Amino acid sequence: MRAVSSISDWELWACAQHYVAEHGEDAGVMAAFRCDELLDAGDHEGARTYQAIIERITELLYVRSGSIH
């Protein structure tokens, strides 16, 4: 996994969990909208951070759906 600014892995997971709690199955889409906003603003580091959050959202939703086997 590539390094993401000064955001810790724990913080990335916490952000992902927040998105899932707030948006449920739409969490990844909502985070992707924010990632696009950051890209449009030229904030590439912020967009990379959101890409890492989206990866974790995907994992959380996968586990939540019971597909851990």
The main β sheet shows up as: none
Order of helices and strands: HHH
β-strand percent reads: under 5%
Spans of at least 5 consecutive residues with low confidence: none
Class by SSE composition:
mainly alpha
Helix content: over 70%
The 3D shape can be described as globular
Number of strands: 0
Mean pLDDT over all positions: 90
- What is the count of helical runs? 3
The domain count comes to 1
Q: Which value, in Å, is the CA radius of gyration? A: 12 Å
- State the assembly state of the protein chains: single chain
The end-to-end distance, rounded to whole angstroms, is 23 Å
In short:
This protein has 69 residues and is mainly alpha-helical. The protein has three helices and no strands.
How would you describe this protein?
With 69 residues, this protein is mainly α. It has one domain (9-64). The protein is 72% helix and 0% strand. The chain is built from 3 helices and no strands. The protein has helices at residues 9-23, 27-40, 44-64. Helix 1 (9-23) crosses helix 2 (27-40), helix 1 (9-23) packs across helix 3 (44-64) and helix 2 runs antiparallel to helix 3. It is globular, with a radius of gyration of 12 Å. The model has no long low-confidence stretch (mean pLDDT 90).
